[in-house]
Amino acid sequence: MxxxxxxxxxxxxxxxxxxxxxxxxxxxxxxxxxxxxxLVVPIQEVDKWTDLDEETWAHLNAIAKEVxxxxxxxxxxxxxxxxxxxxxxPHTHIHIFPTDKMxxxxxxxxxxxxxxxxxxxxxxxxxxxxxxxxxxxxxxS
Length: 141
Hints:
By secondary structure, the protein is of the alpha+beta class. The chain has helices at 4-9, 54-74, 118-132; strands at 17-20, 24-28, 38-42, 79-83, 94-99. Strands 1-2-3-5-4 form a five-stranded antiparallel β-sheet. Helix 2 (54-74) crosses helix 3 (118-132).
């Protein structure tokens, strides 16, 4: 059965994409630690990041770094947080989010999916895309 991320990637479920290429996608988390919280995900469905081939792992991290810089700049944050947790969805993903302090690395404080403001989520995606030079589909023009 396809993971929820595969369903988002394939358009079966909605997603706010900020980046997309042939190997990796990035879209906003529906349960963000802060607005701008983005998931960087390989298209290939691999549960554990330690099982990714070296080329995909390297590319995933290169895009995570690019998204991290975009998130940091879009939200004027001191840092871009980076977390690999891997328990919530069995599909490798890197959490990237704007952060100013260590206390923000706490998933217990994340917004619930039904508690986010849709307009704020849309604005966050737009701000990140502007820094990445991508369109609503996540592709660079």
